[in-house]
Amino acid sequence: MGLRVSIAAAGMLLGSLPLSVDAAELVILTNQGATPGVRELATAFSQASGHKVTVIQEAGAALERRLNSPVPGDLLTANPEPFDDLIKKGKVVPGTVTPFVLAGLGVSVRAGAPKPDIGTVESYKAALIAAKSIGYSYGCSGTHVAEGIAKLGLTEQLKGKTVRTGGAANGGPVTDYLARGDFEIGIQQTNIMVGVAGTDYVGPVPGEINKPCQSNVALLTGSKEPDAARAMIAFMASPAAAPLLRTTHVEPYPR
Asked: What does the pLDDT read at residue 172?
């Protein structure tokens, strides 16, 4: 029901926007934390508009090469920090950067392992202290996890049993390592942790310790279909997108 309603709402929205007569083929380059939601939105947008949307998750050197290529794609999603520099470098069209999603932090364990009590800040703190090992990433979610640990006064206490994932030498989401048994508790964005084989999702990081990661979308200057790409941005930030985003365990950016 939610998908049909959102597709209908997308159709109404698109009817008021300047679209090309012919179906366009759009490419969206996404950051890991935004990919599940963007895939949902791309499906609805495609069904409502007739445009084909391909979602490609890129990061690091691969993303750099893509952005420097003659035809990089049409849209880019990322955390807010890179966009000012990308605008200065002429990679992103000024005035198109649009926040669209917030992804909160969650906790998972290896499949079949006991699930710790993390229902309150105090029980979350106790679970971290009791854990034999903890894993979290670099990037936005890792920064926010580390900030939360610092607020709890546990930075030094946990340092010796903490594994950081996703750096230059070891990419991939936290759940990859958790499923192999590299550590006991994994913490990352909920939307890339729920339902991953070999792991069991425990729940969200509680209270004020859970600082979400924001993702924005913007038009790339190399886009060959700027009108359709702008329509996609409008849809991603519209009320019609909200229920689809929530199915992927994120929240739409508040308007």
From this structure: 77
Phi-psi region of 149 (alpha: psi -120 to 50; beta: other; left: phi over 0): alpha
Contact 8, 235 (CB under 8 A): no
CA dihedral 194, 196, 198, 200 (to 10 degrees): 10
CA–CA separation, 184 and 178 (whole Å): 7
- The phi, psi pair for 53, rounded to 5°, reads -125, 120
CB 69 within 8 A of CB 94: no
Residue 28 contacts residue 231 (beta carbons within 8 Å): no
Q: For the CA atoms of the chain, what is the radius of gyration?
A: 19
Q: How confident is the model at residue 240 (pLDDT cuts 50, 70, 90)?
A: very high
pLDDT in tens, 78-103: 999 999 999 999 999 999 999 999 99
Q: What is the pLDDT of residues 10-60, one digit of tens each?
A: 555 555 444 444 789 999 999 989 999 999 999 999 999 999 999 999 988
All domains in the chain, ordered by first residue: 2-101+215-252 (3.40.190.10), 105-209 (3.40.190.10)
